[in-house]
Structures are given as C-alpha cells and as structure tokens.
Amino acid sequence: MINPTHLHVDEIAGISPCNARTSPLKPEARAELKASIAEKGVIQPLLVRREGDSINVLDGGSRWGVVRELTDEIDPADALRVKRVGTMPVVWFEGTDAEAAEASLISFVQRSDLHPVDEFERFVELQEKHGFDAARIARETGKGVRFVQERLRLGRLAPIVRDAWRKGEIEAGVAKAFSASESVEAQTALFKKCRKERAFYTESIRSELRRDCFRLDSREMKLIGAEAYAAAGGRLEEQFFEDQSYALDGAIVRQLVDEKLTAEADRICAEEGWGLYFFNTIDDDEFEVAEEFDFAEEAARHEELDALYNYQRTDEQNAELDAIVTRAILRAVPTAARASRAILLKFNWEGEIGVTRNLLRVSGFATTDDEDQGEGEFEEDAPPRERAKATPPAPPPEPEGEPLRKGARAVLDETCNHALQNCVQAWPVLALTYAVAAMGCLSRVDAAIDLALHPRRNFKPTHPINIKIADLRFSQALPICAEATNAELMDAFCELVGAAIDTGRLTDFNAGLLLVGVARDYDVRTELLLQFDAQAYFDASTRQAAVDAVRATEGQASANEVAGMKKADAAKRAALVASDFAWLPPTLAEACPPRAAPPEKPRDMRTTAEAMADAIDADEARQAGERDSFADFLKTFTVQRAGAKIKSKTLYALYLNRMDLEGVTPLNLSAFGEAIEDYGIAKKRVAQGVFYLDLDLADHVQPAEAAQ
C-alpha cells in the first residue's frame, strides 16, 4: 500500500500511545498555534503510523487537535472549506513500538520551545528506557554533549521542585541548585522549608544540601589528595552548574584528614620526643608557646630570612627558615623536657601542614573521656594525644555551693550562644561592641569571642556573602566583599560575630555571663527564654536544682512535693514550671534581670477636655517635627540604588542614633515603617529579616556608623 502524503483530520483516529508528549500546551501557546494554523494552515508535517486498523499521530498531536477544533467551527455545508482546513501533510513512520517511542522522543526534544523540565524528563527516558548515553542523545537531537549532561543531572530533581519550576514558581537557577543532592527526600524537605519562609537563595540551597561535602579545591581535599580519597571509596561528583566538583563522602574526608595529621604528628613526636600533640587549636589557659631558641651558628642566616616578609620569601627560603627554627628549638629544649610538652599541627588553604613546637603546660589539664571526642572532628578543639603517661595534675578545689554539672553547663552554653547570636544579628552596635573588645584585648584571657578561629561547630552561614566566601581563599573572598553594599557587609559582619561567640571556651561560665550582661538592653532575656531547653537542663542537673526551681516559682509546698519524686519526674515537673513562669537558671537570671516597671506618674489635675486639647496640640507639633527630621535623615543618609537593599533594623538603628545625636524625638518603629512606605520604598521579608528594596546607605556612611 502506498501511503498518502496528506491526510484529512477525520482519517486520523487519535494520539499514538508511543507519543512522547504527556502534558498539553499552555493556553496562550495553544491560542497562538490556532491563530497561525487558521491563517496559514499546517506547514510542518505530522509524524503518523498505522497501529492496527487505525492511523495515529506519533508527533504533532497539538496540531492535529487544533485542526479538529477549526473544522468543527466551520459550517458542515461548506465542504470545500472543511476539506481545505482539515487536510494536513504527514510523514509515515515504519517500525516497532519501541522504535516509534524512540523516534517520538527524539522529535519531541528537538523543539525549541520545550520547557527544561519536559526536556530533561525525555532525556532521562531515552537514557533509561532506550539505553542512550549522553553522546548519542546529543547526536540524535542536535544538542551539545555538555548540554545533555546538564539536563540529565536535572533528572534527579524532586517532583515538587520540577512542578514548581514548570509552573514558574521558581527560577531556573534555584531549580538547578536543588540538583546538588541526589536525595529526593532532602530536596523535598528543603523546598518546603524555603517555600514556608518565602526565601529561595541558590547559595543557601546548595550549602544546605551539601553539608557533608567538600569542594575539590578545599584545604581538606588538598591535604589528602583526590587519589587517596577515591582509593578509600570516596565518591566524586562533577558539578555542571558551578565551577567546582565535590567529594560527596564527608566522613571519609574527615577520617583521611585525621589519619594524615595523626601520622605526621606521630612521626614528629617519635623523631623529636614530644609527649603530646594537638590539631588546629589549643586552649590558651592550658598551654602557651615557650619562646626557647638556640640558633648557634645559624643566627645570622635566621635573622636574614626572618627580616623578609612572607611574600618576599621563596618556597625554598620558607622551608629553610622553618628548618632553622626547628633545629633552634630542639637545641634549646632537652630531650627529657620534651616528653611533657606538646606540638600543634595546622593545615592551611593550600593543604600544607604547619607545626608549632614547644607548647608548655601552664595549668592543670584533664583529658576528656574518649566518648566525648567525635571521630574525625579535626575542625574543633581536640584533646591532646598522649604518647607517654604523665602524672595526673591535682584536682582543682571544689567551688563553694553545688557545682555546675558538665551536661547542665553545656545546656547553658548553648542557650547563651544562640541567644547572643540572635541579639547580635538584630543589633549591629552590639556586634561592634563584642568585636572591638575581642580584637582589641591582646591578652586573649577569658575571651568568649575569638574572631581569629573558625566559628562554632555546626555553624551554617545564611547571609549570601558569607555563604559565597565560606570555602574561598582570602584573595578570592575580598573582591566579593568589596562589591557588596554597606548594609550587606554589616549584616554579614553581624552574623560572623554572632557565630564566633562561644562561652564554652571558658573555664569559668561566670566569665561568659559578662556578654549576657552587656546585651541586657538588647532584649537578651527574651532570646534566652526562647533558646533555653529546660528539660535538657534539669535532666543534666541534680534533683536539688529542680527542687530549687520549683521553690522559686511555686513555693515551699510544691518544692517539698518535688523533693520526694524520682529524679526523672522531678526534672519533668521543673521543666514545666520553668516554661509556665518564664524561669531561667539563677546564673542567667542574675545577669539579665527583668526590666523594672516605670515609676508611677503624678496625678494629672487637668479636666479631660483640657488634657485632650493639650495632647492633640502636642501630638501635632511632635509629628510635624518627627516627619521633617525623618525626611532630612532619608535625604542625607540613604540613596536609591537599583538592586540594593537595607535590613530594616539596620536602617532604623542608624535613624535612632542620628535622632539621638540631634536631640530629636524619633518615630517609633511602626511610624518609621509607614513613613518609608509613604516615600514609595518597597519592603520584602526573607529568611534574614525584613529588607527595604532598591535603597542603600549613602556612600559616606560607613558600616561602623550604621551600627553606632
């Protein structure tokens, strides 16, 4: 049988089961197609095949459906027009069902107007059902191999992400960020969280989905090497939407780093006789570097090399200087003395290990239980590794009163850290207060903030700037920061200062309470109440702590009742009471007492009418003055700039400061927001807070001034 080159719409039974299109055209696209066919007819032939006694459309179902609509709209009596409009060019396909499905898929993905979701779903189908690799898909569809590989990567997107992208709820960049993880469950959970918070930041999404991954150019991977990682069974993944590939198995990376540092430390200790070693950081209260050197005949050469700046020395000169210093230390410190001293190993951004020798114990040190040290936690303060058993130091004297248990102390540290972090992010002036004190106090004694160290364990940056620069070198991070606005830098700075707070670094918890006391004017008590885990605190404390809490809130009778309970029941009862009465442990409560009630005002002897008239006059005068001052402030300290944004609290803090300096009563926060809106300035709430859009601090305003 000779197949005709044209068919009337009525000769076609329907859409072939092998047709690749599964979703209908969007209404606007279908309307455009209908208008085009009505004017010019069907130009591109339909791909059809015989299936049993019927002729079905393998490719071109939308055109066939539109032609059916057009012919139905024509008066059946106008047979010539029905025939002209309803006749379409066709191309016949001969082959098996599998070959037909393959041909339909290939034809479908060759369209220029295809949504990326439809495209990558069909690519995945070609790969999984028909055995095509990326190169063959590229050949058959006329696409580039890299393009096909990118689309195949998107095939891992969770259904909820695909649907949102297809509907236009998220942009392509956001959707691609979700492909950072192959876990559909992780993608789905994070997507729901972002949707709830109305905050889809690509860098935040990638960072969250790769919490246990390492970039190949990270210092950890440079230290261990990609070959060693792969040999240990680690998986590598190329990133198609970024400029970096990733090591997916963080546990393997941490284990290899720990093994490499341990091997190097063991070698040095065995060769030189040191008794202890640390990784990355030490406690300044327990160890200090002893400045003992004997340069002997190398003194002149040491002085010559040491006089040069780091960037002036070659790699060979740096190695020579390190060797001279090492020999000088070994000459100065007898072998017998080294057994009670330590070394510190660090590795830099190039993955190079540096060693600090001759750390001398300055106070008693008690090693922690093995179970308290997580496997491979090389980023945190680690207990020393002892090569020789030393005589344990005498225990410290018992403090007066009931001592704070280790678990309870951990709860209080966690409470303070997170509460203070939230206060710092809300109040830039508090961040500056802490930062200046921490950086300017060169003795470093009893400092609960260390900006020179890594932030607290499990800190995950949320500000876009901090996310971008987290894994970069300083030379790469600096240009990014230089391009940021003043407001963006201030917000990023506050987040980092907050993350550097760690009262757990302190031997005496009372020293950390000084930070709480300084923050008492910044609503730190509310933050402490929000962060305090009463159940965990009482579980870790003695029964007497629960009894005391109940006595302070409900009285002696209730305390007597709790005293007769089992420890677990007493802790549960005390936790409920703490929640009901907004109770804080005495150490925290004394540092931030509730604000005192305002003094009672003298009785007003005016009549109601007189008081109302005076209040109206005063209020009108006050509002006029406040509005004029606000307008002057906005004109002087801000500038409209497309794409910029200012955190509302940052701008309001600057406004309050300026009004205070000028002796003008400021607008309250609500009135301030209304005044901003009156000027046509839009605002938007995201995960980091409320921001005013297309508004920036004036160039003459420095971040420090904004905070002060």
From TrEMBL:
<dbReference type="Pfam" id="PF02195">
    <property type="entry name" value="ParB_N"/>
</dbReference>
<dbReference type="InterPro" id="IPR041468">
    <property type="entry name" value="HTH_ParB/Spo0J"/>
</dbReference>
<feature type="compositionally biased region" description="Acidic residues">
    <location>
        <begin position="368"/>
        <end position="381"/>
    </location>
</feature>
<feature type="domain" description="ParB-like N-terminal">
    <location>
        <begin position="5"/>
        <end position="109"/>
    </location>
</feature>
<dbReference type="InterPro" id="IPR050336">
    <property type="entry name" value="Chromosome_partition/occlusion"/>
</dbReference>
<dbReference type="GO" id="GO:0007059">
    <property type="term" value="P:chromosome segregation"/>
</dbReference>
<dbReference type="InterPro" id="IPR003115">
    <property type="entry name" value="ParB_N"/>
</dbReference>
<dbReference type="GO" id="GO:0005694">
    <property type="term" value="C:chromosome"/>
</dbReference>
<feature type="region of interest" description="Disordered">
    <location>
        <begin position="366"/>
        <end position="405"/>
    </location>
</feature>
<protein>
    <submittedName>
        <fullName>Chromosome partitioning protein, ParB family</fullName>
    </submittedName>
</protein>
<dbReference type="InterPro" id="IPR036086">
    <property type="entry name" value="ParB/Sulfiredoxin_sf"/>
</dbReference>
<dbReference type="Pfam" id="PF17762">
    <property type="entry name" value="HTH_ParB"/>
</dbReference>
